[in-house]
Amino acid sequence: MSRTDELETRIASRGSAVVAFSGGVDSSLVAALAARALGPRALAVTAVSPALATGELDGARGVANAVGIAHEVISTDELARDGYVRNDRDRCYHCKTELYEQLWGLARARGYAAVLSGANADDTGDWRPGLRAAAEHGVVHPLLEAGVGKEEVRALAAELGVPSAWKPASPCLASRLPYGTEVDPEVLRQVDRAELALKALGYPVVRVRHYGVLGRVEIAADDLARALSERTAVEEAVRAAGYAKVEIDQEPFRSGSLNRFTARLPVVG
């Protein structure tokens, strides 16, 4: 039995399912497998909130259409949850609790038997409070359960022709705020504006880390030298989004770097 057959069999055993679908490669692979295994008994659902970066919803719609799964959009209100707004280290727990409560409400109302996520085997080696929320809500992780890690996720997605197979990770905008900085809709919009401006300059993988009046820019390794040579344009783009101060990290973008930097950054603004 091939790996895709194994995963499809796992998903088919659920009978019907709602897929928590961001349009990233992990959830896109699960959506593609669910479409193959369950046909019209599979539904991909994308949650929209102020923390969703511009362009992500359009991308999700395109992937859903390409893999042939029914797709719907819901609005989530994690900003109404104090634990999310406080932005402690368990912020994602509160976000995912909101998401899974809404997805299960939809699933029960429509008669779907399961809620699936795109969590993969590599996620267990990182700080993932969202997995605790998933466990509390009985969410199924087909990739994680089968021991499929990120590298294999991308290979399987490419094999199935999933458009987002090589899409860089794009976590919610709140991930740009240091823990302890309250999540505010206007701050999320500011981060979004800054990152959009940098993408317009030709930097597809970028993070603008929010430290009050300071926006700290992280650029992917392939583009970092160019960004440093175009420092003025990069800084002007970020200032136009509302930051008084701008720094370009001398090291390439890497996930989780905000935690490291927060520990040594002086308070500004």
Number of domains: 2
What does the overall shape look like? globular
Order of helices and strands: HEHEHEHHEHHHHEEHHEH
Helix content: 40-55%
> Count of helical segments?
12
Write up what this structure looks like.
- With 269 residues, this protein is α/β, with parallel strands linked by helices.
- The chain has two domains: 3-159, HUPs (Rossmann fold, 3-Layer(aba) Sandwich); 173-262, Alpha-Beta Plaits.
- Helix content is 46%, strand content 13%.
- The strands form two sheets. It has a four-stranded parallel beta sheet, with helices on both faces. It has a three-stranded mixed beta sheet with strand order 5-6-7.
- The longest helix is centred in the middle third of the chain and has 20 residues, at 91-110.
- The radius of gyration is 19 Å and the shape is globular.
